[in-house]
Amino acid sequence: MGHESGADVTDAHSGGVLAENAALRIIGASADFEDAIEAAKDAAGKTPGVTGWSGYSSTQVESIRDVEDHARDIAGNIQSSAEEISSTDQESSGGFSESDGDLSRPINHGPYSIY
Questions:
Q1: 52-100 tens-digit pLDDT
Q2: Which of the 8 DSSP states describes residue 102?
Q3: Angle between helices 9-26 and 53-97 (to 10 degrees)
Q4: 53 Cβ partners below 8 Å, 6+ apart?
Q5: Nearest Cα residue to 16 out of 89, 91, 73, 86
Q6: How is residue 56 annotated by DSSP?
Q7: CA 85: distance to chain centroid?
């Protein structure tokens, strides 16, 4: 990108779709983890008396749920941002298309320019 601000709305929306697909793959990991811990606990049996399954499981499941929530939020935020940018571009495009006069000074040149 050059010396401008903006976004490619199509790319942003595509990124949101990819993030949503990734979130869908992640969601359910906490339940899978709980099932795996329960299976390990059952497989270990009561002897030799391994403890700590519940505490470990609840701590880790909480962290995994946070990841699931973040993944869902990121996907929604990317797509919402793309829609908002598109809407803003549409609203402001009329003002730029009506301008047909030349500026009296060069653009992007001067004491603060990177040129």
A1: 888 899 999 999 999 999 999 998 898 888 888 888 877 776 655 555 5
A2: P
A3: 170
A4: 37, 40, 41
A5: 73
A6: H
A7: 16
